[in-house]
Amino acid sequence: MEFTLLAAAAIAGASAYAMLWWEARHGNAARCAGNLWEIGLVSTIAGIFIGRVVAMLVDGVNPIAHPMDVILVRSGVGTVGASLGAAAVFVLQARKDTVTMADGISAAALAGLAGWHAGCVVRGSCLGTASDLPWAIAQEGSAVTRHPVGIYAAVLLAVAALCVAWWKAYRRPPAGSPASIAIIAAAGTRLATEPFQPSISGGPVWFYTTGLAVGIGLLVWSVLRSRNS
Predict the structure, then answer these.
(1) Which of 89, 117, 143, 188 is the most buried (most CB within 10 A)?
(2) How far is residue 34's CA from residue 138's CA, in Å, rounded to a whole number?
(3) How many other C-beta atoms can be found within 10 angstroms of the C-beta atom of residue 2?
């Protein structure tokens, strides 16, 4: 794993931890910040590992025959495998408290994603399709200005994280709704920024669309459930 990737991961981790720390001071309902941090960290690491294995299998590389290739995260991590793997490990850890724990970590997860995307500044991977907008940026040695799509995603996710954190701290949202909003924000951000991504790094639009639909469905379920309880 290259150092710029580690730096981006550190920014993501620091962002998530800072949000958990702030929420702990303002009454996070799910156990304590330490437990949420540990569960989130384990889920993230497991998700990256699963996503890397999936990417290797898709590329026709046997992870058992090439175990050292698993740690070469920069060579590719499957978005779908990583996301589903992290979610599965999270549910296994939370067990019967899945909804409460998911609500508890929702803002921190969005903050972590925002930090990861902001880490594109360190990695030099912020730029997307060509643009002549005033804030477009040219890569060093190039005269073509491009959308800072990584910054777009970081800003959208950061705003979503702050909104969810404020909602949880100063309102009483229905159980499950903060987690649902987090899923909607994460999937919606990827869908909104996908047109600005360079074609070689396009993501699985079908997966983001499914995530958006699932988030909306869970939000409707949580609101109806609260009204009937």
Answers:
(1) 117
(2) 41
(3) 11
